## 1
Amino acid sequence: MQEDYTLSEKRKFHIEDGILIFLLILSISGVAIMDYSTDDGYGYWIIMVFVFALFAILIAWLQSKHQEGEFADIVKEQSLHWITSLLVVGGAFLLQKSDQLTAESASLVILLLLSLATMLDGLRIGWRFSLVGLYLGASSIIRAFYEPFIWIDSIIAILIVTATFLWEYWMNKRKDS
């Protein structure tokens, strides 16, 4: 029985780490797209709200198999969180359409909003999701201040992935002791 639990925990770790890596790749892509075309970057980040929401629901669903709670309740909670986030992103969209924000400013604001939504959701579903949120927030600030931001963002993403794997390795080694 213990072996089954350990295997399922390892499988869950691999899935969550795969999602972490995928979201970081999507984030780097979004920052690069934003640099190429602010209008395209703006639309990209709106779409990413939906993508992040789907992955958050997937992670919550995986965790519901190991914890108490109905899947319907989890989907409801996640949906409310991400719909609310999308409403705020819609506010940034309206500010941009009213010429209160440029497309580039709106992209950065949406990136920060996605960062906040991801970090807050990470408090519920796991620290890996919070790391992605921190990464998004850092990327928006780095992009505003540094020209070679894509290299800096890439290095940070590699460090996050490396640290995650080292942390999991250390935790597994500690469990086995």
## 2
Amino acid sequence: MRRRDYDLTSEPVRGQPQPAPARRAAGPVAELQRSLGGNRAAASLLARKGEKSKGDRNKGTFEHSLRIGKLGPIEVKDSNVSDLTSQNGHARDLVVTTALGKHSDELKKLAAGASKIDAVEVTTVTGQNTWIVVTLKHGLITDYEEDRSAKTASWKLTRFDAIDVKRLAIGSARP
């Protein structure tokens, strides 16, 4: 009997099942969708619509905001987050000025207590289609003080253990 050697590297024969093509890397929109937690959250952010409860029918998202556990989004009026994320930054604490709201009493309690916060997530929109999400882990809120106009409060997040910076963009970043 003769033995035949088949060349398996040649062209595939018609009618035979083909192997599935390799998966390509996720695009920026898919990455955004996964980081936000799904289609609804991504659509909400892109449409500039925030989650709405009965009392917040006209509330939108903020260009600069933060989230502490279930508190948030909280509008950030001023912060030094760019000092924390830049290569030349020497900041050791996150110093924030936030708008007063329903969250203010809870922030005051967190500042009065001496327990660390699991995570504080600061989101900043930069340019037309880019934003930065900075997550500070295991920090302590201190120095909570409301201003005289009763519109903002200033406070610090100090002694945090880790910082994670994600830069997200749809397409190429634009100024």
## 3
Amino acid sequence: MNIKTFLISVSFVLALAAASANAQSSVEAVMSQKQIQAARELVETERDMTLIINLDLTPEESETFWPLYDEYRQKIRSIRGRKVTLIEAYAERYRAGNVDDEFAEMAIKDALDIQLDTVKIRQKYWKKFRRIVPARKAARFYQLENKMDTEIDFVLSGGIPLVES
């Protein structure tokens, strides 16, 4: 990993950590919608910068890659939005002390559906990205996406308490 990539990764994680600092140990301190939107915009900007630095696209590749990437991110953001909604519903129930078996069953089913839908989108777009860039570049792109999503999920998970048994 070169120094630019490292610095962007560190700033990416720090941006995520700052955005969720109020929810480190519990969901009692929920961010405002403005804070959530600002954090999302910052993460998207960091994501784009990471890709620009690490993909080394040719001008021809860039011309077709970025519109497809925007389409892909829109679909992924929609799925991630469902995840945020699920987390918010859990937070509300958790604070109220009302995480019953029925909700737990529904929440896990929804979480698994979200994971499955994400994989389906990634599979579909893999073929599209492969038509634009060589396999190694497309693989690098997917590795970067996976790393960034994992960092986001790690930060989010730090603010989600376990279901009381």
## 4
Amino acid sequence: MKRLFSFLLLASVVVLMTTNVAQAHHSFAMFDNKTFVTKTGTIVRWAFNNPHTWLYLNVKNADDSETLWSFEGAGVTGLIQRGVTGNTIKPGDTVTFMYCPLRDGRPGGAIGWVKLADGKALNLADGGCTGTEETSRKR
């Protein structure tokens, strides 16, 4: 009986600890995950770290000036499982990318996919932005 009680107590503690971890992850409420936008930009930095990767790109404006945009992507473990590493994307690369914009209008959002100059497409999404090239609109 003592063994059963110890097991149930331990199982309860494990369940409670996992619930807190799951609740700690943020929602995608800050992103408009019904809008898919495609742009081209030059990679400034690829921050390949947990809990989320970040992709920073310079995007040309209509007046030929540039704006630094930032995009949240999936965590390192998920990307490694997809074949994406910290060296897959390099500063200076020009890429086409799809994203779901921030609702507040700042330059950035949740990254969906990135297409490299050689045509290779990478899925960097964290599950909240999963549009395709056909569903994207240029902005």
